[in-house]
Amino acid sequence: MTTVTASPGVGSRSAVAGPGLPAGRVNIADRVLQKTAERAAADIIGVDAKGVHVEIVSARDTAAVRVTSPFPVPRLDDTAAVQAATPVLEAAAAAQSELRTRLSRLFGREISRVDLTISGATAPQRKRVL
User: Where is this region: Disordered (predicted)?
Assistant: First the structure.
């Protein structure tokens, strides 16, 4: 039998070893889960991972994730982009749902909740034409 155990505070789960898989224990540090969640959140939201902060709170077989991140918005002087943009609340709800699905798949456990706190806004940099 193989037991997969995350570090304290993240929980554990057990699985039966399949053919050719060694029995044993796999420990995953909290920091690895946190960094993985930060990268996934940055990718889904569309911002630099340096500005994203994630906290993972674990229960027996599930985890809740708290994400704090700036949110991308179009440049306000680009009228066409502003009119075409998805409203922030709608985009944030879609990001929460996608993040929950992706983290459940990556962590191999149910993510019961994703709380997203928008800490600011980021606009794309103007590109200079030479």
Answer: 1-23
SS3 10: coil
- pLDDT greater at residue 105 or residue 12: 105
pLDDT tens per residue across span 97-123: 999 999 999 988 899 999 999 999 998
Q: Please, what sign has the CA dihedral across residues 11, 15, 17, 21? A: negative
Pairing of strands 110-122, 53-58: unpaired
How far, CA to CA in Å, does 20 sit from each of 16, 23, 104?
12, 9, 25
pLDDT digits (tens, 9 = 90+) for 72-88: 999 888 899 999 999 99
Residue 61 to residues 94, 96, 104, 117, Cα–Cα distance (Å): 24, 20, 11, 24
CATH of the domain spanning 29-122: 3.30.300.20
CA–CA distance, 117 with 125 (Å, rounded to integer): 23
